[in-house]
Amino acid sequence: MTAAMNPAAPHYLPVFITSPSESDLFLNGAAIFLVAMVLGLGSVYFRLHALPEHLAHKNANKVQFEIVAVLALLGLFTHNNLFWVAALILALVPIPDFHGPLANMAASLARMAGYSGPPREIDSSAEAPAAVATPSHPVEAMATPSTADTPAVPEQTDRISPKE
Q1: DSSP 18
Q2: Cα-Cα-Cα-Cα dihedral of 81, 85, 86, 89, to 10°?
Q3: What is the rounded CA–CA span in Å between residue 38 and residue 16?
Q4: Distances in Å between the alpha carbon of 117 and those of 8, 17, 78, 114, 150?
Q5: Contact between 71 and 87 (Cβ < 8 Å)
Q6: Bigger pLDDT: 91 or 120?
Q7: Are the beta carbons of 38 and 12 closer than 8 angstroms?
Q8: Most CB contacts within 10 A, which of 18, 32, 55, 110?
Q9: Which of 117, 162, 164, 116 is nearest to 142 (CA)?
């Protein structure tokens, strides 16, 4: 039995039309292309969602980086683009370091005031510290700081002494 072509069919058929016993090359190529595109677009999608974290990793402090990472993950899992845009803006705008200068100011003021930190527990085996005379007036307390914890500072002659 020979397979005769229908007389209404054209004599030249395109490549993607196959006979029943052959494999369909166009379908196989389309399937490979579809799988490659899904993997490629998925990779681009995840790289795009990781962009704020990469930007924050370069020029942000730790707290800012963690906030950007959380916002990027929220944007990824909730498909809410507002979180991702907020993470991108936060990663691009550097937040100034407020803690460093304030900590330095606090340390300087503590040194000027003679503050050595919170009171420490005294060992029972250690000797008791010498008794320190406590002034009776608050102004005298400010004028005469304890010399045990403070470094030697030259006296200023232009101080106003408390009135007696």
Answers
A1: -
A2: 180
A3: 23
A4: 101, 87, 47, 9, 12
A5: yes
A6: 91
A7: no
A8: 55
A9: 162
Residues 6+ apart with CB under 8 A from 8: none
Token couple for 38: 């899904």
- Give the pLDDT confidence of 27-62 residue by residue, as tens digits: 899 999 999 999 999 999 999 988 998 888 887 788
Q: Mention every residue, 6+ apart, whose C-beta is less than 8 A from residue 114.
A: 145, 146, 149, 150
DSSP-assigned letters across all residues of 36-102: HHHHHHHHHHHHHHHHHHHHHHHH--HHHHHHHHHHHHHHHHH--HHHHHHHHHHHHSPPP--HHHH
CB 91 within 8 A of CB 60: yes
95: tokens are 């937040």
pLDDT of residue 135: 54
pLDDT for position 126: 54
Question: Can you tell me the distance from the alpha carbon of 107 to that of 113, in angstroms, rounded to the nearest whole number?
Answer: 10
Q: Say which residue, 121 or 162, is predicted with more confidence.
A: 121
Please give the mean pLDDT across all residues of the chain: 78
Determine how many CB atoms are found less than 10 A away from the CB of residue 61: 14
